[in-house]
Specification:
Mean pLDDT is about 90; it is low at about 1-30. The protein starts with about 30 loop residues before the first strand and ends in a 16-residue tail after the last strand. The chain contains no helices and 27 strands. The protein is elongated. It is mainly β.
Length: about 375
């Protein structure tokens, strides 16, 4: 799957350039609205509202509107957005798939319907909204009613971006040990020696690793159980100079049931680890999905929320200056770069491995922040 058009936000996407086309023009046409008596809006016909599209370039069909205007040919305009308000240019976008489209000048079709098919791949695993209107000369109809569709659920791993939905019985990573795919939920690590390994297409020395996790419970069977981790290889993560682990500690966890982390920036001297006061004790509910997010560069920051966009439960950032080193002394830049759901150190017998029973989905690893709408196709619309 390869996008032939690119739309990326400038914010957070240093070193990347956005390719513009008529399909990613601003969603603010100049045509003035005509009276309803002169031009009536088209009516969405296909796909059905909320339907799962069979491709990343779905064909959108409307029933033609009508017009009593005597000059100008009837042309159609189609808008597609990952937001129901069709707003664009948000600073939190970072993706090499298209997430908005605006196509004008579509000739009215014969047989009572008009259609538009994007000539680029839309972002996977995303709920999109679309609408259409007629433009005739300097006048335009009202917009049609808005419908939505979801793009196919799929993962990808390419330079600077990795995404793994995990909800339909497959992964782009490598499962190791005892794992189970739970339909609609994700992949469950059945014991402390199981994990999912990803090798990134290229190292990322500053970015985000985030996911939804269910099954975390109080009094886990180990003091330093791992939720996710990263390193520079497939050997024992605790032998890596680029050890990075996020923990939900269990019994004897100093303190029990606390959230904590540990990161090495290439040297044991550059160790970022909260002291006792920086470990938040919380009784997580195994039936709830928590959003775990780690960001790194010459620092590490761990955030845990009650679901995506939910209440903050933990948020701590430690940098080199916090431990007495200049900010530019080091950065987290493992080569090669491996990431893990859970951790691989359990089989080596050095500290605890993965949190048994944790179930993961909607995983993002990227040089920029998670695109706000990526994974929205997995969310239930209420």
């Amino acid at each position: 799957m390869k996008a032939s058009r690119v739309f990326m936000a400038a914010a957070g996407a240093a070193g990347l350039a956005a390719c513009s086309s008529s399909s990613s023009a601003p969603l603010s046409p100049n045509a003035t609205s005509a009276s309803a008596a002169a031009i009536t809006a088209p009516t969405p016909d296909a796909p059905a509202d909320g339907a799962a599209a069979g491709s990343y370039r779905p064909t959108l069909v409307v029933k033609n509107g009508t017009s009593t205007a005597t000059s100008g040919i009837r042309l159609y305009e189609f808008q597609v957005s990952d937001r129901s308000d069709f707003a664009v240019n948000r600073a939190d976008r970072f993706t090499s798939f298209a997430i908005v489209a605006n196509k004008s000048g579509v000739p009215e079709g014969a047989g009572g319907t008009t259609s538009y098919t994007p000539d680029f791949d839309l972002q996977p695993t995303t709920r999109f909204y679309w609408r259409s209107r007629i433009v005739q000369g300097a006048a335009a109809s009202d917009w049609s009613s808005t419908r939505s569709f979801t793009t196919p659920i799929a993962g990808f791993n390419r330079p600077g971006e990795l995404y793994d939905p995990l909800v339909y019985g497959s992964t782009i990573g490598t499962p190791v040990g005892s794992t189970t795919f739970v339909p609609g939920k994700g992949i469950r690590l059945n014991d402390g020696n199981s994990y999912v390994r990803y090798q990134l297409a290229q190292p990322i020395n500053g970015g985000e690793f985030s996911m939804e996790v269910e099954g975390l419970r109080p009094n886990g069977p180990g003091p330093k159980l791992k939720v996710f981790s990263m390193s520079d290889g497939t050997g024992d993560v605790y032998r890596s100079s680029y050890l990075l682990v996020a923990q939900y500690r269990g019994v004897a966890g100093n303190p029990d049931n606390s959230i904590a982390f540990k990161a090495l920036l290439g040297d044991p001297a550059y160790k970022l680890e909260p002291d006792f006061g920086g470990r938040t004790v919380i009784a997580l509910d195994p039936s709830r999905a928590y959003f775990w997010k780690g960001t790194w560069s010459n620092f590490f920051r761990l955030q845990v929320n009650d679901g995506i966009g939910g209440a903050s439960l933990y948020d701590l950032r430690l940098g080199l200056t916090d431990i007495g080193f200049p900010a530019g002394a080091a950065t987290y830049n493992p080569t090669p770069h491996f990431a893990y759901l859970g951790a691989n150190n359990g089989p080596f017998g050095e500290e605890d491995g993965s949190f048994p029973g944790a179930t993961y989905r909607n995983v993002w690893i990227g040089a920029g922040p998670r695109p706000a709408s990526l994974g929205s196709a997995l969310q239930v619309v209420r």
